[in-house]
Amino acid sequence: MTGTPVEESLFQIIHCYHQYAAREGDVETLSLEELKALLMDNVPRFMESLGRKEPYYISELFRAADKNKDNQICFDEFLFVLGRLVRDYHLHYHRQQCAHYCAQHSLY
């Protein structure tokens, strides 16, 4: 049975987390390097465009998510990362839509 697109996306996120967490150290957590690899491999265009404006985005995101300050991101902390990422992606989307609308209507 095939899931809905959102169910499939959620499964892929969980699978992706575990795939990258298993690369080094504790297989249930992400190091900063594992998080960087996960984001650069899976959302490269967003990371590239964001990185030009905010080169420390990933390290700051890691620091904010690491609530217990153990230099690892557990799955619950990863949910914080996803929330921030979705929020920032949403803001990026709106900026693009606004720019497109303004260009179409000669508002610049």
The main sheet comes to: none
Shape: globular
Q: Uncertain regions: pLDDT < 50 for 5+ in a row?
A: none
* Structural category: mainly alpha
Question: Can you write the helix and strand succession as a string?
Answer: HHHHH
Comma- or semicolon-separated keywords:
108 residues; single chain; 5 helices; transition metal ion binding; globular; mainly alpha
Notes on the protein architecture:
This protein is mainly α and 108 residues long. It has helices spanning 5-21, 32-42, 44-53, 57-65, 75-104.
Short précis:
GO terms for molecular function: calcium ion binding; calcium-dependent protein binding; chemoattractant activity; transition metal ion binding. This protein has 108 residues and is an all-alpha fold.
How is this fold's topology laid out?
Layout: H1 5-21, H2 32-42, H3 44-53, H4 57-65, H5 75-104
Helix pairs in contact: 1-2, 2-3, 4-5
